[in-house]
């Protein structure tokens, strides 16, 4: 197993308010990690640190070290565009751009300067297939992506994230806005893809974390309480507070 | 919401304990009836033979319902799983006690071998004490006590081996004891099996408290039948 992202003593403050109090967590290549914890515990904040999505927030201060493939992503030498190409993101609400399925998926490639039409065609098809949305879109590639259902839109967004061939995909509650059938389809898609990509997913759906993740990390009040293989976390966590949270005793 | 789960779990634990105490009493009644040739008591036990399986199914149904509807994980999951598994072992112990009662009804022949009957009383005393202790360890989540109880299965096994030798010697000394002795073989074997099920119960206490699935079987356990 290779560590692809490592976070060491990550503190994050908004002005005087410290939201993360020194998080240490490693992510292994081609694994799916679930970040769980009560609302406001800092899990989405932490997720967004991993591809520097918090950079533009006013009065924000991040200390500690986050390394992607051994390189400190907060170093001045880090190429932010390259980082976000390698570490993509899918949000809670499906966010297709208001243009065709094809153009949505091709968008990242065009931004990256890819001009070879055949290559773009090939990547669009591959990515839509990987995101398990090809069958539903192959005859409607010119159709506006926003005209699809919520679950389909989210899979189009996953395809868009995959088109630039990232190494890691960050998912911020990717199924919380979806019905159970669409959620289940996204879960199946992630299960298929986790052999090729590394996923880090914030979720409030604990059963979902149990079903599809390899590693689970439990955060509370800005602290990482416990992290480990999902099976161990869901059967015999080290801390009683983890068990209490997993059983819905608070949160 | 969680209060409902805890309340249901408490009821389930109480029912499990009650079943355990009843099974323990059955072992006592059955072996006493055997040694006293009290076919009447044995028959009344056999007449009520459905009580333990019915209770066991009821506990298992409730535990499965909790699993399906409350979807417990971590500590709560282990509690429900261990009750589900431990109930099966308790039911087997009850079946063994019932088999001793059946043997009491079937038993024919004299003379008897007092030394063997003394071992049977001794084994009964030990398994009953172990059962009560394992039920206590279960309720108190006492892993140490569970391991200690499991380790005492060696004494039961030792008594079993000693009884077998005495039975064989007894038949050799006086072949007219052979008919009665076949029942001694059956009863000591059943008591030895009860000891094994108590070891299983101990391993469920360990699982419940630590999450570790371990075989606590005594390495010197007698495998002969």
Tell me which CATH architecture of chain B applies here: Up-down Bundle
* Integer-rounded radius of gyration of chain A: 18 Å
CATH homologous superfamily descriptor of chain B: Phosphate transport system protein phou homolog 2, domain 2
- Largest sheet, strands/sense/barrel of chain B: none
- What's the number of domains of chain B? 1
Number of helices of chain B: 8
Number of strands of chain A: 10
Function (chain B): Plays a role in the regulation of phosphate uptake.
Domain PhoU (chain B): 17-101, 120-205
GO biological process, one term (chain B): phosphate ion transport
Keywords (chain B): Cytoplasm, Phosphate transport, Transport
In short, what is this structure?
Chain B: Pfam families: PhoU. The complex is a heterodimer of chains A (251) and B (225). With 251 residues, chain A is an alpha/beta fold.
Describe the structure.
The complex is a heterodimer of chains A (251) and B (225). Chain A is α/β, with parallel strands linked by helices and 251 residues long. Chain A has ten helices and ten strands. In chain A, strand 7, helix 7 (180-193) and strand 8 (198-202) form a beta-alpha-beta unit. In chain A, helix 3 packs parallel to helix 6, helix 4 packs across helix 6 (150-163) and helix 6 (150-163) packs parallel to helix 7. The two termini of chain A are 33 Å apart. Chain B has 225 residues and is an all-alpha fold. Chain B has one domain: Up-down Bundle (Methane Monooxygenase Hydroxylase, Chain G, domain 1). Chain B is built from eight helices and no strands. Classes of the chains: A alpha/beta (251), B mainly alpha (225).
């Amino acid at each position: 197993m290779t560590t692809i992202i490592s976070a060491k003593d990550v503190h994050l403050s908004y002005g005087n308010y410290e939201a993360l109090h020194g998080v240490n967590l490693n992510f292994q290549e081609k694994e799916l990690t679930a970040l769980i914890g009560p609302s406001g515990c800092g899990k989405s904040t932490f997720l967004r640190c991993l591809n520097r999505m918090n950079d533009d927030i006013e009065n924000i201060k991040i200390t500690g070290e986050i390394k992607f493939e051994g390189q400190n992503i907060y170093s001045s030498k880090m190429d932010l565009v390259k980082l976000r190409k390698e570490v993509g993101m899918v949000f809670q609400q499906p966010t297709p751009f208001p243009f065709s399925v094809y153009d949505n998926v091709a968008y990242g490639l065009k931004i990256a300067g890819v001009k070879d039409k055949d290559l773009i065609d090939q990547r669009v098809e591959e990515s839509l297939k990987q995101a398990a949305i090809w069958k539903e879109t192959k005859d409607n590639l010119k159709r506006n992506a926003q005209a699809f259902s919520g679950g389909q839109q989210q899979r189009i967004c996953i395809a868009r994230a995959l088109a630039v061939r990232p190494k890691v995909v960050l998912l911020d509650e990717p199924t919380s806005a979806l019905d159970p059938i669409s959620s289940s389809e996204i879960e199946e898609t992630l299960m298929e893809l986790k052999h090729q990509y590394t996923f880090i997913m914030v979720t409030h759906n604990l059963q979902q974390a149990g079903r599809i993740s390899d590693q689970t990390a439990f955060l509370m009040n800005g602290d990482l309480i416990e992290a480990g293989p999902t099976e161990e976390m869901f059967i015999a966590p080290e801390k009683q507070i983890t068990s209490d949270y997993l059983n819905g005793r608070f949160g | 919401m969680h209060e409902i789960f805890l309340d249901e779990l408490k009821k389930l634990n109480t029912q499990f304990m009650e079943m355990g105490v009843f099974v323990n009493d059955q072992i006592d009644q059955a072996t006493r009836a055997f040694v006293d040739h009290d076919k009447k008591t044995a028959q009344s036990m056999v007449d009520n033979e459905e009580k333990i399986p019915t209770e066991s199914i009821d506990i298992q149904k409730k535990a499965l319902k909790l699993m399906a509807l409350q979807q417990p994980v971590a500590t709560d999951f282990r509690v429900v799983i261990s009750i589900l598994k431990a109930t099966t072992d308790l039911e087997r112990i009850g079946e063994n006690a019932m088999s001793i009662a059946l043997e009491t009804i079937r038993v024919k022949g004299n003379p008897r071998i007092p030394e063997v009957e003394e071992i049977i009383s001794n084994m009964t005393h030990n398994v009953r004490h172990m059962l009560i202790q394992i039920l206590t360890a279960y309720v108190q989540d006492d892993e140490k006590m569970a391991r200690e109880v499991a380790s005492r299965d060696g004494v039961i096994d030792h008594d079993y081996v000693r009884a077998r030798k005495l039975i064989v010697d007894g038949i050799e000394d006086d072949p007219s004891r052979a008919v009665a002795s076949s029942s001694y073989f059956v009863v000591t074997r059943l008591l030895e099996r009860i000891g094994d099920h108590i070891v299983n119960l101990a391993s469920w206490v360990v699982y419940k408290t630590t999450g570790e699935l371990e075989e606590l079987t005594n390495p010197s356990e007698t495998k002969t039948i």
